[in-house]
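Stage 0 sporulation protein A homolog, pasting as requested.
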Amino acid sequence: MKIKVMIVDDQVILSEGIKTVLATDEELDVIAVASDGVEALEKMEKEVPDVVLLDIRMPNMNGVVTTGEIKKRYPGVKVIMLTTFDDSDYILSAIAGGASGYLLKDISADSLISAVKNAYAGDTILPAKIAKKITDAAKMVTSDREIRLKKEYNLSDREVEIAIMIYEGFNNRQIASALNLSEGTARNYISAIYLKVGGENRSDAIVKMKKTLGG
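Structure tokens follow.
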């Protein structure tokens, strides 16, 4: 069975180029092309894709908002953001919304095809440049937050970093990818944080951190 793909981009020439590239692979089937998030959601009511390639900057409904809506309505759909290198303001928001990864628009044809297949298989797609931006953003923790968490829960520097990422909505795989850790190591850190914070799960930990950070 082929992987069903939807392309969402307000630049028609780019959408057509991507469609042409994906059509060269027998395992992929582009079932729809949309020019913005509103049109994409309308088309998904008729046929739901497996993977959505989604531009970040679009009129009517941008990629971040669209990601949240797609994941709310169709949790199993994998969303890959199409981004330019200066879209850093959107990246963390899209992660929190459930995006499976990011592709830079200068990606090669072979890499694009592989990325779609890997996302469908459950992998997180993070080019090195994007991963660095996520890491840098994760490290931009205010000293006030660091001090509060360290003082309240006796967390190590690495635990503080990961705790903030949990608080901001990163899942385990995204934390591991952003910090260049194995998923097992990330889980170990996260379990230690739950223990120190006094929560049984992610939701409990976030509630307790919100109280500490005044969020």
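Note for the archive: The CA atoms of residues 153 and 196 lie 6 Å apart.
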